[in-house]
Write a structure and sequence with these properties.
There is one protein chain. The chain has four domains: 215 residues, Histidine kinase-like ATPase, C-terminal domain (Heat Shock Protein 90, 2-Layer Sandwich), CATH 3.30.565; 131 residues, 2-Layer Sandwich (Ribosomal Protein S5, domain 2), CATH 3.30.230; 79 residues, Rossmann fold (3-Layer(aba) Sandwich); 188 residues, no CATH class. Helix content is 44%, strand content 18%. The protein has 23 helices and 21 strands. The strands form five sheets. It has an eight-stranded mixed β-sheet, with helices on one face. α1 runs antiparallel to α2. The longest helix has 40 residues. The chain starts with 9 loop residues before the first helix and ends with a helix.
Length: 718
């Protein structure tokens, strides 16, 4: 396996195909060169580097291949016995892995079918002496044909061994034991051996640069990874027990695997506790799963497995590649994106299928129609299971919804066909903790939350505490508010607006309540243009200077009962900024400052008081400024009117300069006006208090500003 390689994506499928083409090219190159010398054979010297470079980039898998071969040989014997082709005693079928650090050897022993000298030549030497073209043709359609025969799988041993020995005796009556040895060069030896029992011993003389494979802990790690569920008992040493203050070996074999893992059993024979115990075996440090799905299909492909929905508490728990892929109980990989739809890669568990197309090293998924069929089947199975739980025990389903939500939302976002299945059991949750299907919630709100244009408005919050007053304002109107605080709720909102006819989602603090769901044209304020400008400047001038934050002031007639000052955030911009975290190409929005609207309620008594007080205290200072401003604005209007009647080329430079100077004069007078108002506002405690209350309501009042607010509040109470 290549490091951190997502084997299942299209890119890597292409790479695998390219690798296979490269192998053929390399081999054919050798053929051509040697043909020039009059030799059409291909030697181990030629092929070993190709095998090592292209087929076995991960040294660790050698042990999987060796033990798998031993297991296969044992199972073949059992099959022969069941068919009556073997009459002898099967006896102990345990595959034994033996480490001899002093001798520098690792031995894999079985009591399977063994091999004759002719079979050694066929299965071991054929790669060295058969024509390469014949070899490739033989196995190109079925790479798994090699697996279980001492073919390329066996040659992975030379990645870690300087010398390999096979001591074997066939189950066939009258067979004699033979010993095959090779140091990875073209030369090998076959000789008679002293072996009384059938089966094979594969002795690996570990190379100097691979001494880590002589460490007990390393071998235990690999056996636990690759051989944990193989179909024949695999023993590595003896069990130990604590005795006389130390661990001592017992006479009992240390069996590292379970030969009948849970996924091989019939679901009807299993209890909930069986599934939970198996989950603890797979993931010892994880919390109990939400529930599980037992996969079991034999047509049009064979597939078994168990998938668990884990409890996800935070982003750290959102780890992919927790599903283990097996082929006939032999671990292959935990990179399952091609087998399992992307959204289900967050699940945990096991999938086992002999029909998953692998390359000869069992390390890469190959392109095949079965892969898509398997992914489709798993998606349907998951959807059916979720639907079944929802229908049979809705209460339990609702209790688990907050944990299930991320899986289901991810599925609906990433797979159209899953959305079609899931829309009937996906849920909305409101701020009071009640759950609704999409259709149920539509029925609930359609009479009261449809605006004057016929759009159904879904109100939502993502922080119940911070948005409390906005939620209460909505409730007072008889509106329902959804709770959407999940990691994928922002893209879900975007998708649902596309899926649900004439519907839009708006966060409850995106605007004042009367404008969230517009039932009629808004009431206009009674203020004059001059009053509007002055009141806006009173508050605008005192807004805090926050990093990457902009404030815009607007005045609305909201009624005496509504709050004097509200802060809202535009739904579109807020959502675009949120989406920039999920979608590439939207960084533009992420870099933009946060923009907020400061809405002044011109009907509120405190706002009226501020305006009246501002007019009283600034009238004298503003009188000459406003007079000059009106004069300059009138002159500017005349100049615009005069020049608009002319073509650009007819306007003289003098006229252009006159217009520019007048515009500057207007700007200067406005600045004088704004400075006078700002100078008044800086000492107005009511203005500062109203602003800070609005900021506090939105969680934006912190540090020194919060401290100043508290001190001001105390002083105003006195």
């Amino acid at each position: 396996m290549t490091d951190a390689s997502p084997f299942w994506h299209t890119f890597c499928e292409d790479m695998v195909n390219r690798m296979n083409r490269t192998i053929i090219k390399q081999l054919n190159k050798h053929i051509n060169i040697m043909a020039q010398k009059g030799n059409i054979g291909v030697t181990t010297e030629n092929i070993f580097p190709v095998i090592k470079k292209f087929l076995y980039s991960d040294h660790d898998i050698f042990l999987r291949e060796m033990v798998s071969n031993a297991v296969d040989a044992t199972q073949k014997l059992k099959t022969l016995a069941a068919q009556g082709d073997f009459k002898g005693e099967i006896g102990d079928t345990t595959v034994r892995v033996t480490l001899d650090k002093e001798a520098g050897t690792l031995t894999i022993s079985d009591h399977g079918i063994g091999m004759t000298e002719e079979e050694i030549d066929k299965y071991i030497n054929q790669i060295a002496f058969s024509g390469v073209t014949d070899f490739l043709d033989k196995y190109k359609e079925n790479a798994n044909a090699i697996i279980g025969h001492f073919g390329l799988g066996f040659y992975s041993s030379f990645m870690v061994a300087s010398k390999v020995e096979i001591i074997t005796k066939s189950y066939r009556e009258g067979s004699k034991a033979v010993k095959w040895s090779c140091d990875g060069s073209p030369a090998f030896e076959i000789e008679d051996a002293d072996k009384a029992e059938r089966g094979s011993d594969i002795v690996l003389h570990i190379a100097d640069d691979c001494k880590e494979f002589l460490e007990k802990n390393k071998i235990e790690e690999l056996l636990n990874k690759y051989c944990k569920f193989m179909a024949v008992p695999v023993a590595f040493g003896k069990k130990t027990e604590w005795k006389d203050g130390k661990n001592v070996e017992t006479d009992e074999d240390n069996i590292i695997n379970g030969v009948e893992p849970l996924w091989t059993k019939t679901p009807s024979t299993l209890k909930d506790e069986d599934y939970k115990n198996f989950y603890r075996t797979l993931y010892p440090m994880q919390d109990e799963p939400l529930f599980w799905i037992h996969l079991n299909v034999d047509f049009p492909f064979n597939l078994t497995g168990i998938l668990y929905f884990p409890r996800i508490k935070n982003n750290i728990d959102m780890q992919r590649n927790k599903i283990q892929l097996y082929c006939n109980q032999v671990f292959v990989t935990d990179q399952v994106e091609g087998i399992v739809p992307e959204f289900l890669t967050l699940l945990h568990g096991v999938i086992d299928s002999p029909d998953i197309p692998l390359n000869v090293s069992r390390s890469y998924l190959q392109s095949d129609s079965n892969v898509k069929k398997i992914a489709t089947y798993i998606t349907k199975k998951v959807a059916d299971r979720l639907s079944s739980i929802f229908k049979e025990n809705r209460k339990e389903y609702e209790e688990k919804w907050d944990d299930l939500k991320i899986f289901i939302n991810y599925g609906m976002l990433s797979q159209e066909d899953f959305y079609d299945r899931a829309k009937d059991f996906a849920l909305f949750k409101d701020v009071d903790g009640k759950y609704f299907t999409f259709e149920e919630y539509k029925t609930l709100i359609k009479d009261n939350q449809t605006d004057k244009d016929g759009n159904l408005v879904y109100l939502y919050a993502n922080n119940k505490e911070e948005q409390y007053s906005y939620i209460e304002a909505a409730k007072n109107k008889g509106y329902s508010v959804l709770m959407m605080d999940g990691q994928l709720d922002t893209p879900m909102v975007n998708m649902l607006e596309q899926k649900l006819e004439k519907s839009r989602f708006t966060r409850v603090d995106a605007d004042i309540i009367d404008r969230l769901i517009v039932k009629e044209d808004a009431k206009k304020t009674d203020l004059t243009d001059e009053q509007t400008a002055n009141l806006s400047q009173v508050f605008r001038s005192q807004m805090p200077k926050l990093e990457k934050t902009e404030f815009f002031v607007e005045i609305q007639a909201l009624g005496e009962a509504n709050q004097p000052v509200l802060i809202t955030q535009n739904e579109y911009m807020r959502r675009m900024k949120a989406m920039s975290q999920f979608q590439a190409g939207m960084n533009f929005y992420g870099q933009m400052p946060n923009s907020y609207n400061i809405v002044l309620n011109s009907d509120h008594e405190l706002v009226k008081k501020v305006l009246a007080d501002a007019e009283q205290h600034t009238a004298e200072a503003l009188k000459p400024v406003l007079a000059e401003l009106k004069g300059q604005e009138a002159r500017l209007a005349v100049l615009h009117q005069s020049q608009d009647k002319k073509k650009p080329e007819e306007i003289t430079q003098e006229e252009k300069d006159d217009l520019q100077n007048t515009q500057k004069a207007v700007s200067d007078e406005k600045q004088k006006r704004d400075n006078i108002i700002a100078d008044y506002a800086k000492d107005n405690n009511i203005v500062h208090q109203l602003i800070d209350l609005a900021l506090l309501q939105n969680g934006m009042l912190k540090g020194a500003a919060l401290d100043a607010f508290l001190k001001r509040s105390v002083s105003m109470i006195k």
